[in-house]
Amino acid sequence: MSASSLSWDQAFLQPPVCDAWKDIMEGAAYHLASCIVLLGYMGGSGIFGSLYIFGFLAPGYFCYALWGWLSACGLDIFVWNMLLVLICLLQLAHLAYRLRRDTIREEFDLLYKTMYLPLQVPLEVYKEIVKCCEEQVQALVRDQNYAVEGKTPIDRLSLLLSGRVRVSQDGQFLHYVFPYQFLDSPEWESLRPSEEGTFQVTLTAETDCSFITWPRKKLYLLLRKDRYIARLFSSHLGYDISEKLYSLNEKLFAKFGLRFDIRLPSLYHVLGPASSEGESEDCEEPPPASGQADASAPPPQPPPPPPTAPRPRASRPDSDLLGEDSTSLVVEDFAELPGSFMDYVSEGEYMK
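Below the sequence we write its predicted structure tokens.
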């Protein structure tokens, strides 16, 4: 056996025993270093936990180096601890760089938590989407037009972050666009990538607004490259357009409390409270007379009602509300449409 193997055997099987313990304790630097290292190892996981751990280990090892240089007078103790201090500082610099790289602006962070985090979209994918819009937030002052009907080309897709935008056509109010809704989703879906067109509506800011915008060609390249982002935009745009359709459906009021559903081509109606009461009263039949001679004889048919002249359209009683006017749609607006409710006698026949 060599001398080295004998020394290892003695170290593990027969370790040397201390002849005498020191009467004096180590200096304050040694005990301070031990306390700091103990606190450092209580950190958690993740990037912030790592910052906590290495933030305590660096000064702890530095205190050990001071103890080795001043009290223990050991060059090896000083060199090793200074090397550990350098490694901890490098690790802190790397973590700070990662934290700064992963940090996004407050507006984009709120957008991620509102629209993308509920869908469990990875943060790296979201950064690709934000990078496509160049991480810029644009502003609209009050009464400023985002698009003008028949003039503004459809060359971008924008998402409203704050404020409220009014959508109108030929001076007629259509609906509002609220935060975290697309400003021009119908225009985006109406054109193919190779087609060009202009806005058919006018979008005007009613308050100070902020929005982000994706250039059309740049966004098309991103959607073609990443199918996951393409499906994500497709779902967001479909939901946004359906919300706009429902907001338009709120304007389709008819007489007697009827409201139309614009999802069906025949404008399937939903009966309101007033119409339900009216139908129940109309369906009541008078009881037969007690002195009726022949019970089996059919009752006499009433004469057909005389044709009534078309009545002029009446303005809605709540036309003075914000966003409504006297040109809101009523049931006569759909009388000439094929397959509309006006062609049927009752709701049951319409549903057949």
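The domain at 107-249 is CATH 2.60.120.10 (Jelly Rolls).
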